[in-house]
Amino acid sequence: MGVVVIVGTAKGAFVLRSSNARQEWKVEGPLFKGWKVTAIARAADGTYLAGTASDVYGPAIQKSSNLRDWRQVEKSPQYPEGGKRKLNQIWSIVPNGKAHYAGVDEAGLFRSIDRGETWEPVTALNEHPTSGAWVPGAGGLCLHSIIVDPRSDRRIWCGISAVGVFRSDDGGETWHAKNEGVPVIVEDKEFKDIGFCVHAIAQDPKQLDTIYRQDHRGMFRSSDRGDRWQRIENGLPSGYGFPLALDPRTRALFSAPLESDEYRIPIEGRFAVYRSRDGGESWHPAAAGLPERNAYFAVLRRALAVDGLDPCGVYCGTTSGTIYASNNCGDRWQAIPCVLPRILTVAAFTEN
Questions:
Q1: Hey, which of 25, 149, 302, 320 would disulfide with 297, CB 3.0 to 4.6 Å?
Q2: What is the pTM of this model?
Q3: Element (H or E) spanning 9, and its range?
Q4: What residues does each domain of the chain span?
Q5: What is the per-residue pLDDT across 269-323, written as a single tens digit (0 to 9) for each?
Q6: How far is CA 46 from CA 149, 232, 247, in A?
Q7: 2-351, superfamily in CATH?
Q8: pLDDT at position 31
Q9: Of residues 94, 87, 25, 99, the one with CA closest to residue 60
Q10: Residue 98: what pLDDT?
């Protein structure tokens, strides 16, 4: 048994391998040298999928069964030529049994029913009545987060920046904005239920109606599938941040707060991951081994991941190219001995 952590950067992907002890690491790569690697996923059959983007060749989805040999999917997500949107990159890939989903920039959702070989737009969301009023955040107009409810694959949540959370209860046929209780960022004159800049969402693995949300304006929780949200920031030094990760075994939550949307750096130059063990009721620093001064990097919304082992491994990639790992649910961290390009996404998996 072992752990593989795949790190997508602005100049390729790197594969980090360790035993279950997660004390020593072997670094392999780069894969897709010189390309942005913006999304990583693994399907139930063991197939890996990667979202890549080239300034020359554009975005695509790649597939591999062994993390060495890759092939590009011929019919990756794409918008019609001459349409109102341009597909800039793949933000997220979620394999889910019968259907795989991909979220893209400019914001849209695509679905594959043949294990990622061909992709079709989810028109009801992409052409939502509010879509003409969608506006980008600083990171672009991106659909970056997707949750498919394990009780029913007909219920799907999507997070779009800077638009908000949408939910479908009928397999994507209809979509409704779910942002009540969250402060608006850019209020639209006509559509009052959009204009919210969600950064990340996560579902509680045991209380499945509970959804967590790291937003531009704070940290929030919903106990009714997103219908209403309440602020949960007790102990956090700032409500502002990008990533949100959840250990499926212990339900521990992890966040990486930053100093305001204006500055976007660790508070007082001290980088700290914060952890909640009580569903967001309270947060405490889990920062032993992390830089206590002169740290001025950020952790992007897809760059914090967990492996789900016992105890949980947590992995945090930074914009400065350093990746920190904890093999004990955040109690203590170590820097993996490599300095990579700007880290965009991190995913962790166990291997036999």
A1: 320
A2: 0.97
A3: strand 2-9
A4: 2-351
A5: 999 999 999 999 999 999 999 999 999 999 999 999 999 999 999 999 999 999 9
A6: 21, 36, 21
A7: YVTN repeat-like/Quinoprotein amine dehydrogenase (2.130.10.10)
A8: 98
A9: 87
A10: 82
